[in-house]
Specification:
With about 260 residues, this protein is an alpha/beta fold. About 35% of the residues lie in helices and about 25% in strands. It has helices at about 35-45, 60-75, 105-115, 150-160, 180-210, 225-230, 240-255; strands spanning about 1-5, 10-20, 20-30, 55-60, 80-85, 120-125, 130-135, 140-150, 215-220, 235-240. The strands form two sheets. Strands 3-2-1-4-5 form a five-stranded mixed beta sheet, with helices on both faces. A five-stranded mixed beta sheet has the order 8-7-6-9-10, with helices on both faces. α1 (about 35-45) packs across α2 (about 60-75) and α3 crosses α7 (about 240-255). InterPro entries: ATPase_NBD (IPR043129), Type_III_PanK (IPR004619).
């Protein structure tokens, strides 16, 4: 079975694939201070019941990636491993000024989006520590995108800088016009980020129309995507396991 590990700045998502089927996944907190042995204790306990025969990894946290390499060398020394980094085969041309700047997760999401929705351009909206909009050409090329502060970062910053405001539960309020401080914060956050995404998707779509035919498919993913999916009018699909699927595809190309 293939163990896929997606290390983000806030959370790490693990998934176990049996052939092409994702049979189990977990979401745990990312701690850049964890050592290789601590990672093994955590990850090994989660996947103990599965016979792992392959590993696919991507990380946006360099310190954790370093420890992951050590963990793999110590505990999975003879298992085929694919780490998304320069030199690995992804099949994703990076049509940007500096390809080395592009996060591994954005490359993985591009491959998965084009594989799942190959008929035309696509926009992947990844709701994580930051909100990433990644633009995919009809040929599966990564064209660039937009990065914005994530939902939780924005809420934390507002609570820290405004004396009379505080963190609230991130759920959809009963109306856009909040009748109290909690509802007003929820409205501004949920509907505000939905409007941000819709505005960016509209502008990206207009630019894509200059070069490509067809309306882009808009796909949401990431841990915070359920907060906005169904509210942002531009988002058509929700793929919670998009990055894990991309890791599986990359492993198949390199194993």
């Amino acid at each position: 079975m293939l163990l896929t590990i997606d290390v983000g700045n806030t959370n790490t998502v693990l998934g176990v694939f049996k052939d092409k089927e994702l049979i189990r996944s977990w979401r745990v907190k990312t701690d850049a201070r964890n050592t290789a042995d601590e990672l093994w204790l955590q990850f090994g306990a989660l996947v103990a019941q599965y016979e792992i025969t392959g590993l696919a990894v991507c990380s946006t946290v360099p310190a954790t990636l370093r420890e992951l390499r050590t963990m793999i060398n110590n505990y999975y020394p003879n298992i085929p491993t694919s780490i998304v980094e320069p030199g690995i085969k992804t099949g994703v041309p990076l049509l940007v000024d500096n390809p080395k700047e592009i996060g591994a997760d954005r490359i993985v999401n591009t491959l998965a989006a084009h594989t799942l929705y190959p008929n035309g351009p696509a926009i992947v909206v990844d709701f994580g520590t930051s909100t990433n909009l990644d633009v995919v050409s009809p040929k599966g090329e990564f064209l660039g995108g937009a990065l914005a502060p994530g939902i939780e970062i924005s809420v934390d910053a507002l609570a820290a800088r405004a004396a009379q405001l505080r963190k609230v539960e991130l759920v959809r309020p009963r109306s856009v016009i909040g009748k109290n401080t909690v509802e007003a914060l929820q409205s501004g956050t949920i509907f505000g980020f939905a409007g941000q995404v819709d505005g960016l998707v509209k502008r990206i779509t207009e630019e894509l129309a200059e070069s490509y035919e067809g309306k882009p498919t808009v796909i949401a993913t990431g841990g915070l995507a359920p907060l906005v999916f169904g509210i942002a009018e531009s988002i058509e699909h929700y793929e919670p396991d998009l990055t894990l699927t991309g890791l599986r595809l990359i492993h198949e190309r390199n194993a």
